[in-house]
Amino acid sequence: MKHVRLATIICATFALAAPALAADHTINMLNYGADGGMVFEPAFVKVEVGDTVTFQPKNTSHYVQSYVTPEGVTPWKSKLDEPFTVTIDKEGVYMYYCPPHLMMSMIGVIQAGNATNMEAVTAKAAKLKPKLVMKGERLDAYLGKIAK
């Protein structure tokens, strides 16, 4: 009986500590980065479910809006020039962009666990491509990093 109680206590302790294990990832919103002008850096991030992602404006005139999320995830949109944090609460691929700079391919991708929503990602990416006037190859490069 003592072993059962001890096991229960140990399991409960780990269950309570689990949220503390979540990581916070920072994505900078930049006028100019390693890949040229108007970028999220890093533009592709692999995270775990439960992690948070903070979008940090490093220059003015940027904000972030979700474009594709796993089914059941509420779409999100930040305020202009303000840091924004989103908790990644479902497995799948999240695609986002900066609305004022979409034509310059200021886009990014987050993958949490398995790419469970690739059909939706592929369909929405095809609709997005004609809007990418400059640096359109970024989208394919970021999508190419998704582990399927």
Give a written overview of the molecule.
With 148 residues, the protein is of the alpha/beta class. The chain has a single domain (22-143), classed as Cupredoxins -  blue copper proteins (Immunoglobulin-like). The protein has three helices and eight strands. The strands form two sheets. The chain has a four-stranded mixed β-sheet with strand order 2-1-4-6, with no helix packed on it. Strand 1 and strand 2 (36-41) form a beta hairpin. The longest helix has 16 residues, at 2-17. It is globular. The termini are far apart.
Percent range for helical residues? 10-25%
Strand order of the largest sheet: 2-1-4-6
**Text of the CATH class:** Mainly Beta
What is the chain-wise order of helices and strands? HEEEEEEEEHH
What's the CATH architecture?
A: Sandwich
Looking at CATH, the homologous superfamily is Cupredoxins -  blue copper proteins
Poorly predicted tracts of residues: 6-15
What general form does the structure show?
A: globular
Mean pLDDT: 90
Number of domains: 1
Number of strands: 8
State the secondary-structure class: alpha/beta
Question: What are the defining features of this structure?
Answer:
single chain; 148 residues; alpha/beta; Immunoglobulin-like; 4-stranded mixed beta sheet; globular
